[in-house]
# Entry
Amino acid sequence: MLNPEGEPVAPAVEYGKKNPFPAELLEKVLLSGGGSRKETWHFELSLEGSGLVYEPGDSLAVAPTNAEDVVEALLEAAGLAGDELVETRMAGAKSLREALVSHYDITALSRKVAKGWQERSGSKELAELLDADHKEQFKDYVWGRQIVDLLADFPVGDLAAGELIGMLRPLPPRLYSIASSPKTHEGEVHLTVAAVRYDTHGRSRKGVASTCLADMVEKGSAVPVFVTPNKRFRLPEDDSTPIIMVGPGTGIAPFRAFVE
# Structure
């Protein structure tokens, strides 16, 4: 943003992890064709007026929301309606359903979550899995499972909404390698995202942020974002330096930015 003299003007609000910028989705294109094993999307977001700056090699953090069907499955497993009022650490009083959609990680099954659930359920079987001598058995149980499976496998009667919230961590942002250069796309940031979908243990699973972008965000709507710099992932200062670009699992996104 420039003043009448053409000089940069700092935004009135500083955007970051605690206050993500609501970036407008300008473009959304499915890159993979029919029959492809992967579902890869191209997203273009506006950073106009944000004051956010980035360089190729940086990441864009996206603050996602949980899918409604995932929330409903968790509520069913917990035996809760969803309209119960709960006090959240980050947004005050909300309905349980709203809190689960927007504020809490309801999928990642950690040892901490399992331990808290064991204390509430009193399950001897779960206690045995959590025993220090059964680390491999616990690892085998957790693989491919989520919190909804834990609640279904070790049911609890008369669970209070606050108890469910108390065992969950805040919903973390998802970092994606930026797939654009500000020299080519001024005021914009681009992402290349593979939507994660798979089936395990009789349930359909999906990546929280990747399918939030693919399924729940339409052109013109806002996506909460902030930039995460990566000063150790930069092009050489000397333009004549030979470069070999290798994407071992990270994909093409950052290299598109470098090429631009």
Observations:
- The longest strand covers residues 21-30.
